[in-house]
Design a protein that fits this description.
The structure holds two protein chains of two kinds. Chain A is mainly alpha-helical. Chain A is built from eleven helices and two strands. In chain A, 72% of the residues lie in helices and 3% in strands. The two termini of chain B are 35 Å apart. The chains are: A mainly alpha, B mainly alpha.
């Protein structure tokens, strides 16, 4: 019992970190799902969009915006940098889909997947040209400040403020997103295209434009994930590896399912953090991928998905 | 059987092997000679990938894992177990063939993206094991002191004889691949590539065919992995990454999916392309990526398609000249 009481605050601490990573995976996984629902392809460069977002944030946050707004304006410059990153990601998403998706839209999905793979190679190497090979350190709203609270008298839980910020920010983003999809004309058009492209275009929806906007929105989500992750991680080409964890999140939740992406993300993040401390820190990624393969084999429709074996 | 009865593909294959044989002494720079050798080893791997990716149409993104397990099986057999060289190569073939079976059996019921993602995850797991299972694999330090081969009294320790041995292996394996491609299995692979449901409807078993293609790919990757280890004489885990798997897939795509001569052209040329683009300095990898995108989007038949059109164009030119001469 004493052991449990001693361990509990540590476990809570790790779970908070795990859930924060989980939110990041969930955001990237949502991007996969929106594109999957709209056009039935998986964008293999989505992980690299996270990296691009991180770099755009680092580039706009550190030198440019801080100098515009003068010293001591970290708070406001964070939001400006976030906005600039989002605008940049819209461009990245639109241009990418115009180059690697649109000309191939009538080809076999395999061909499109290969072209997104080529985009992934390009983005990684472009990042080396544009921002160099050294990882870039950034700070968020909170820097490396720690948040402490007492857990029912069992001990103190100490986590980075950034983790708490990620949880709150993701929650707000999801509320805004769900309002956007149910209340606005654009959001409803996006849903219509995802349900049935032909019917949507017969109803007068400009389908190619809505698809482009879906790509742009998926890139914004990846970019936001990069911004949220940048203060914890260093920004580097290695950020692209988030992509595979986010697939795992999508698969675990059920590919194409919006709630599934988030739940899957939270599960993957928790599994990763807990297996790092209780199983093996060097094999934590391998454990996540074993979960991925196990799900694909045993429950390919994920936790929330419908059975879609025919279209696998 | 005269040369006229050979198909265009076969003539091109023979031509490529002859050009590669002539190229080595023509290159004076010893570094470029080494790049050419790497190109041949890449071609061994890409011809293996051709079975599963080119012919059967399955996105196999764990090629680096196959290649890495081949290299390590060979390296550990000849160093730790002091096995003779060719037994080590055989160990590599068996190890990667089994790996193909291990990955194939449970996963090949999956299709399209799901298979691709599974193989990416599998490749990462293998990479992490090679990196972290230090007592066996040597961890980050890798395995050093790997031998070059001998066959009876023939020594292949120097680069030049080893190059011609590699080329002979490539020629043999290409011949074997060509024979498989033209057998009933080749036709069945293509049927799975074009339409899995239709293939099933005519009585083929797509899952078994895909496993067979995976195992064939494993055999080639085993040989390629062993030859890579023997070429470098040192292996370490950081080369067997997802980026390399993608690069090998790109070699096949740029060469022209589903064409054997294209696979070899793509691997040799793409191995050289970074060297050719070196004058662009830090831009070269980005330009390289951009070239890949342009070819996939605008020239989906790849180098093979360009080659076919070029030869047709030359043939019509020659014919026209022959016609005018006849008229005069």
């Amino acid at each position: 019992m004493d052991f449990l009481a001693e361990q509990l605050p540590i476990v809570v601490q790790q779970l908070i970190a795990g859930l924060a990573y989980g939110c990041i995976y969930g955001l990237v996984a949502l991007g996969y799902n929106f594109i999957w629902n709209a056009v039935g392809i998986v964008n293999l460069a989505q992980g690299d969009f996270v990296m691009v977002g991180g770099y755009l944030y680092a580039a706009s946050f550190v030198p440019v915006v801080a100098s515009w707004l003068g010293p001591g304006s970290a708070g406001s410059s964070f939001w400006t940098a976030l906005l600039l990153t989002a605008v940049g990601m819209v461009l990245v998403g639109m241009v990418s889909q115009r180059i690697v998706y649109y000309p191939l839209r009538a080809s076999h999905p395999r061909t499109i997947m290969i072209s997104t793979m080529a985009l992934s190679i390009f983005l990684k190497n472009f990042a080396i040209v544009a921002w160099g090979t050294y990882p870039v350190a950034t700070s968020g709203l909170f820097g490396q400040k720690w948040f402490r609270f007492d857990l029912f008298g069992l001990g103190t839980v100490t986590v980075l403020y950034q983790y708490v910020f990620i949880l709150v920010f993701t929650a707000i983003l999801l509320v805004v997103q769900s309002a956007f999809f149910s209340r606005t004309r654009l959001g409803r058009s996006m849903r219509a295209v995802a349900q049935d492209q032909l019917a949507a275009s017969l109803m007068g929806i400009n389908t190619p434009l809505i698809i482009a906007i879906t790509f742009a929105y998926a890139s914004i989500l990846a970019g936001v994930a990069g911004v949220l992750l940048a203060p914890i991680f260093l920004v580097s080409q290695a950020m692209g590896s988030i992509g595979l964890k986010a697939y795992t999140a999508s698969i675990v939740g059920g590919f194409g399912n919006v709630i599934g992406a988030l739940v899957g993300g939270l599960l993957v993040g928790s599994i990763e953090v807990l297996s790092a401390s209780y199983v093996s820190s060097v094999y934590k990624d391998a454990i996540v991928f074993v979960v991925l393969i196990a799900f694909l084999l045993l429950r390919p429709q994920g936790l929330f998905g419908k059975k879609v074996i025919g279209s696998l | 059987m005269g040369i006229r009865s050979l198909s265009m593909k076969d003539k091109t294959l023979i031509g490529i092997i002859l050009v590669l044989a002539a190229l080595y002494p023509l290159i004076t720079n010893s570094y470029m000679k080494f790049v050419l050798m790497t190109g041949i080893v890449n071609a061994l791997l890409v011809v293996g990938l051709h079975f599963i990716f080119g012919l059967t149409g399955q996105l196999h993104m764990a090629m680096a894992a196959f290649w890495g397990v081949g290299s390590y099986a060979f390296a550990l057999a000849v160093t730790r177990l002091s096995w003779p060289y060719w037994l080590g190569v055989f160990a590599a073939i068996v190890a990667v063939g089994l790996l193909g079976l291990l990955l194939g059996f449970p996963t090949l019921r999956l299709k399209g993206f799901y298979l691709a993602i599974t193989t990416i995850g599998f490749g990462e797991i293998v990479r992490l094991i090679l990196l972290n299972w230090a007592p066996v694999t040597g961890g980050v330090f890798g395995v050093a002191g790997l031998p070059r081969p001998t066959i009876g009294p023939l020594q292949f320790g120097k680069n030049q004889p080893f190059y011609y041995l590699l080329l002979a292996i490539l020629a043999l394996l290409t011949l074997a691949a060509r024979m498989i491609e033209h057998s009933k299995y080749g036709a069945a692979f293509r049927a799975v590539h074009d339409d899995e449901l239709a293939a099933e409807a005519v009585g083929l078993d797509p899952t078994r065919l895909k496993i067979l293609a995976f195992v064939l790919c494993g055999v080639y990757a085993g040989i390629g992995g062993a030859m890579y280890a023997s070429l470098m004489q040192y292996i370490s885990p950081e080369v067997y990454t997802l980026e390399r798997s993608q690069m090998l897939a790109m070699m096949l795509v740029i060469g022209g999916m589903g064409s054997l001569p294209g696979a070899i052209m793509g691997s040799v040329l793409l191995t050289f392309l970074p060297e050719v683009l070196r004058f662009l300095q830090q831009w070269y990898l980005a330009v390289y990526g951009a070239i890949v995108i342009v070819i996939i989007v605008y020239r989906p038949t790849g180098l093979w398609g360009i080659w076919v059109r070029a030869t047709e164009w030359i043939a019509t030119l020659l014919k026209r000249r022959g016609d005018t001469r006849g008229a005069a």
